[in-house]
Design goal:
Elements lengths: L4 E7 L3 H12 L4 E4 L8 H4 L20 H6 L9 H14 L6 E2 L4 E7 L4 E6 L4 E9 L21 E4 L14 E5 L3 H13 L2 E6 L5 E3 L7 H9 L1 H9 L19 H14 L15 H18 L3 H7 L12 E3 L2 H4 L5 E5 L5 E4 L3 E4 L3 E3 L2 E4 L14 E3 L6 H4 L18 E3 L12 H21 L4 E4 L1 H16 L29 H13 L5 E4 L32
Parallel strand pairs: 1-2, 1-6, 2-3, 4-17, 6-18, 7-16, 8-9, 8-16, 9-12, 10-11
Antiparallel strand pairs: 4-5, 5-6, 13-14, 14-15, 19-20
The protein binds 3-acetylpyridine adenine dinucleotide.
């Protein structure tokens, strides 16, 4: 068992877990990463569907911790494809010799906190058992795929594939009748690509989605040289932008601009900015009337590329504000419906009744398919976190503790679960940010905290109840400043029936969040209790520079989004 004692057990070998491993190793910590699948990459390993690519620009969706890595890696396109991202991840793993710390086909089944030893006792799917001072969950926010359970599902004689569990062997669509259920980012990305191969493609849509064109393009040698000559400035700009994408929100309200000015601004953003379109004016996500101007512009754009008038009304989103749900960044999604072999099935008009041996029966007709793809999304944020049984200090499971929704201090830890950390989890900017920026920020912050604890003889760290209540209130207050709460989405738990309706990501922006993280550390990890002996052994909180274990609520006062 000796070799199974580690300082930190990291769960997940995606971008987050790998970055955390790298950060912790720099401080000389012994780290074991466990990964349920048979290779690195997390979501980028599993989501191998045709057309899968990142909708954050390649230069920004990459690690910043090594200037050499930044300089030597050459991205081929503005928005990298899934295979290219996976090659990058593997390159990083080999270059920094990370693989030897990772155990594959090893899923976390159960972790129980041993309150007297201040260690986590861990059981894995491969039978291995571990003891770790810290348990760091880097399991991703969109890693628990969700499939509707239609009647007759097992009767269907063709192939059923989920976008997020894409087969490793190639799927040949040539001459096939294909169905895609779901029109989120995954469905919208794969539609135009599969349409080119399939004999017939039917897209089952429940909610029309907004999308901004990717304007993807190859990266020239000159552009690569220029970016790399100024990479630090580019990173600074990303870190100091609200979303971590490098876009600075417009200074003006959309409502102050004349219609002509707005059209010019939106037109320019439409052709180049991807997600940056949403920041053309600072209040697009804050004010419904401002949002309407952007939404109307997008609706006109969508209408202009759809040839069949009867499809326009169905494909154009009207039932929610632009970006209140996650919009897509697409490459020819709407145009795909101009093809003779592509059909839209509106399941709000004619719901799916059941699967049949040959396909799908909707209320109006029978559809026959060879392949049916579920692009139906995920049990977001908490799906993978709550899958293993994680038992805290009082014998309570994390699932029980979070039965009314996740409760955290800074999205990082939760009371009753000492020495447990979550990377890019609920309560942090996570999916409202360039997740790479959030991953790096939190990994370094956590590694510093763990190092600090080691140097100050701290055995146990635990979030205080007061701090987590203040943080949840702050996350809610920030969300209420925005339009995010006006729509049902996976941001607020609406994607799974019966899931607590709680707004999960932190909408205060990565820069504001970073300030709070730093302030927390400067104040001796405010909101966390640092103990030299485990509480179970009647240890006292050690000061370790702490001024207070509660949070100064003045630090959490709402400030405008984009500040
Ligand atoms: O999942 P989604 P996704 N019957 O949840 C529909 C990231 N991502 O995999 O909206 C019919 O967005 C559902 O309909 P509705 C990105 O953060 C990134 O597409 O619930 N339809 C919706 O249309 C993204 O936001 C990239 O009414 C059903 C769709 O399925 C996130 O992953 C690429 C249904 C699910 O959309 C998730 O995207 C891809 C049912 N029973 C994804 N159940 C990058 O580029 C669900 N739907 C980085």
């Amino acid at each position: 068992m000796e070799s199974n004692n580690v300082d930190v057990m990291v769960v997940g070998a995606g971008f987050g877990g790998l970055r955390a491993l790298h950060a912790l190793r720099r401080f000389g910590k012994s780290v074991q990463v466990i990964e349920a699948s048979d290779d690195v990459g997390g979501v980028w390993y599993h989501n191998g569907y045709p057309g899968a690519r990142c909708d954050v620009e390649s230069y920004d969706y990459s690690y910043s911790f090594s200037a050499e890595l930044e300089q030597e890696w050459v991205w081929s396109e503005r928005y990298a494809t899934q295979p290219e991202i996976l090659r990058y991840i593997n390159h990083v793993v080999e270059r920094f010799d990370l693989r030897k710390h990772i155990r594959f086909q090893c899923a976390l089944l159960r972790a129980q906190y041993d309150a007297k030893a201040a260690r986590w006792r861990i059981q894995c799917s491969d039978g291995s058992q571990w003891s770790a001072q810290f348990l760091l969950m880097a399991v991703g926010q969109l890693s628990a795929p969700k499939s509707p359970n239609y009647p007759g599902l097992n009767r269907f004689g063709g192939q059923v594939i989920h976008s997020a569990v894409w087969p490793k062997e190639p799927v040949d669509f040539t001459g096939k009748r294909v169905a895609i259920i779901g029109t989120g980012s995954s469905g919208m990305q794969m539609t135009p690509v599969i349409a080119q191969k399939a004999a017939h493609l039917t897209v089952f849509q429940r909610t029309p989605n907004y999308s901004v064109p990717a304007s993807n393009a190859p990266i020239s040698a000159e552009e690569d040289r220029q970016v790399k000559a100024n990479y630090r400035q580019r990173r600074d700009q990303a870190w100091n932008s609200p979303t971590g994408l490098g876009f600075t929100p417009g200074k003006k309200s959309a409502l102050e601009a004349t219609p002509e000015e707005r059209d010019q601004v939106y037109e320019a953003a439409w052709h180049r900015l991807g997600f940056g379109f949403a920041l053309s004016y600072f209040d697009i996500l804050l004010n419904k009337a401002a949002n309407d101007t952007a939404a109307e512009f997008i609706r006109k754009k969508i209408a202009s590329v759809i040839d069949k008038p009867e499809l326009r009304d169905k494909l154009i989103p009207r039932d929610h504000a632009f970006a209140a749900r996650r919009p897509s960044v697409d490459s020819g999604y709407f145009q795909a419906f101009n093809r003779d072999n592509v059909e839209l099935a509106d399941v709000r008009e004619f719901p799916i009744v059941e699967f049949t041996a040959k396909g799908i029966r909707t209320q109006d007709k029978d559809h026959e398919f060879d392949i049916i793809i579920f692009a139906t999304g995920f049990d977001a944020f908490t799906g993978s976190l709550l899958k293993p049984e994680i038992v805290g200090r009082h014998g309570m499971t994390l699932k029980q503790k979070w039965s009314a929704g996740p409760v955290t201090q800074l999205g990082i830890g939760t009371s009753g679960f000492p020495n447990l950390f979550v990377l890019v989890g609920p309560g942090s900017p996570s999916l409202l940010s360039n997740v790479m920026v959030s991953i790096e920020e939190q990994s370094d912050w956590l590694a510093n905290m763990i190092d600090h604890m080691g140097r100050h003889g701290v055995a146990e760290v635990e979030v205080t109840e007061m701090a987590e209540q203040a943080w949840v209130a702050h996350v809610n207050a920030r969300a209420h400043e925005t339009l995010y709460l006006t729509a049902d989405s996976y941001y607020n738990g609406a994607e799974v029936a019966g899931k607590p309706r709680v707004f999960m990501p932190y909408s205060g922006g990565v820069r504001g969040y970073r300030r709070l993280l730093h302030k927390c550390a400067e104040n001796g990890y405010e909101g966390f209790e640092l103990r030299d002996k485990p509480l179970a052994l009647h240890g006292q909180a050690v000061n370790a520079g702490a001024k207070s274990t509660s949070v100064a609520t003045a630090d959490l006062q709402p400030t405008p989004v984009g500040a």
